Amino acid sequence: MANIRHVLGISGGKDSAALALYLKNRHPELDVEYYTCDTGRELNETYALIDRLESVLGKPVLKLDSIDLNNTTGLSPFDHFLSLYGGYLPSSSARWCTKKLKLDPFEAYMGDEPTISYVGIRGDEDREGYISKKQSVQSIFPFRKNIWSEDVIKLLLSNNAIEKFKGLSNDYGATVHFQELVDAPVSVDFNLKQKANALLDSDTSMFNKIIFQLLKDTDYPIGKLDSFPLIENEDVLKIDDIFEILRSSGVGVPAYYEALEYEVEIDGELKKGTYSRSRSGCFFCFFQQKIEWVWLLERHPDLYESAMKYEKDGYSWMDSETLEELRQPKRVETIKRDHYKKTQSNASKNKSWQDQIMDAEGDGCASCFI
C-alpha cells in the first residue's frame, strides 16, 4: 500500500471498540493506529474497556492530550478549558468541550499526512458523524453498506460525473439495471442519497469499485492506494452485531451499558425496572437523559457529587433543573416512574434492550468517534 495512515478513534463506547476488533479480524493487512481523546472526566469503566481492548488488539491506544505539554496547572483537560471559559459549562448550544477536548486534538494528531479515518457508525443509524475539514483526511464507515462519506458521494455521483461513472460501469460489465441507475440524473425526486442507495442495492461491489477508481483522479487519500480491501465489503452491522463482537472477543460490553435493576412504586405496587447509560463520554455529559443522571446518582454517588460542584454562578448541566433539584427523593421517584412506563411501552412494541439503547443515543461528543 502507499504511505497512507490508517487511524481509528476509540471513544470508550461500544461501536468504536467493536470496529477496532472487526478491522483487526477482517482486515489484518491494515496497519491501524488507535487513539483516544481523554477528557480526564471519563467513567472508570471507560478506562477499563480501553485497557482490555489494548490487550486483545495487541497494540496501544494512544491518549491524545488536549492541553499544551507546557501546561503546569495540574488540572484535567476538561477543568483546564472550563477555567479558560470562565466557568461557563458546555451545553448542546455551546459545545466547547467537543471542540477543545475531541476535535482539536484529533485534527492536530492527523497533521497533514494522507490519512484514512475509520468511523463506527452502524448500518442502523442515519447520521454521518464528524468529517475532518482537512482534504488529507478521508472518513470511511465499514459498518454501513455505504462506506463512503457524503462529500465523496456528492463529488462522484453528481450529474457532472455521470459520463465518467457510466464509462467505468461499461468497462466493468455492470448490469443493464445498474447502468440505467447511473444514467438517471439527480433531481428533487431522485436525490444523491437515493441514487447512491439504489446503486448499492443493485451491486455494492460494482459501486465501490467505480468509486475507488474515480477517487484516483482526486486528492483523497484512498485514491493514492493501489488497492483497498473495504471496496469488497458488503457487511451491514447493526447494534446486535456490535454487542456480539464485543462479547465473543472477550473484551466485553462496557459496564455502563449493562441494564441494572431499580425499584419504583406505581399505584401502590412496587415495580422493578432497569436503567443503564446510553453513551460513553464524561460522567457529567449534558446529553444524558434524566434517568441516566439518576443512574449516576445511585451507582456513582461520588461522581454525582463532583458533577454538582460544577453547577455554580447560575450555570447548570440542564436547562430545566439543577442536579441538587434532581437528586431530591420525590423527583427521583418521578423520573423512575416515567422511565418505567416508557420502557413498558417499548416492551409492548417488542423493543429489546439494545433497541432502547439505540433510541437513546444522540449526537454526543463521543459520536465524533463512536
Labels describing this entry:
370 residues; disordered C terminus; Rossmann fold; five-stranded parallel sheet; 7 strands; two-stranded antiparallel sheet; alpha/beta
What can be said about this structure in brief?
This protein is of the alpha/beta class. The protein is built from 15 helices and seven strands. The protein has two domains: 5-144 and 236-249, Rossmann fold (3-Layer(aba) Sandwich); 259-365, no CATH class.
Structure overview:
By secondary structure, this protein is an alpha/beta fold. It has helices at 14-26, 44-57, 77-84, 96-110, 150-156, 162-171, 176-183, 192-202, 204-215, 239-249, 290-299, 301-309, 323-326, 329-348, 353-360; strands at 5-9, 32-37, 61-64, 115-118, 137-140, 260-266, 269-275. A 5-stranded parallel beta sheet has the order 3-2-1-4-5, with helices on both faces. It has a two-stranded antiparallel sheet with strand order 6-7. Helix 2 (44-57) links the parallel strand 2 (32-37) and strand 3 (61-64). The radius of gyration is 23 Å and the shape is globular. The protein starts with a strand and ends in a 10-residue tail after the last helix. Residues 366-370 have low confidence and may be disordered.
Major sheet attributes: 5 strands, parallel
What is the C-alpha radius of gyration, as a whole number of Å? Answer: 23 Å
What is the CATH C-level name of the largest domain?
Alpha Beta
* CATH fold-level assignment of the largest domain: Rossmann fold
SSE series: EHEHEHHEEHHHHHHEEHHHHH
Q: What is the number of helical segments per DSSP (H or I, 4+ residues)?
A: 15
Number of domains: 2
Main structural class: alpha/beta
Mean pLDDT: 90
What would you give as the CATH superfamily of the largest domain?
HUPs
Side-by-side strand order of the widest sheet: 3-2-1-4-5
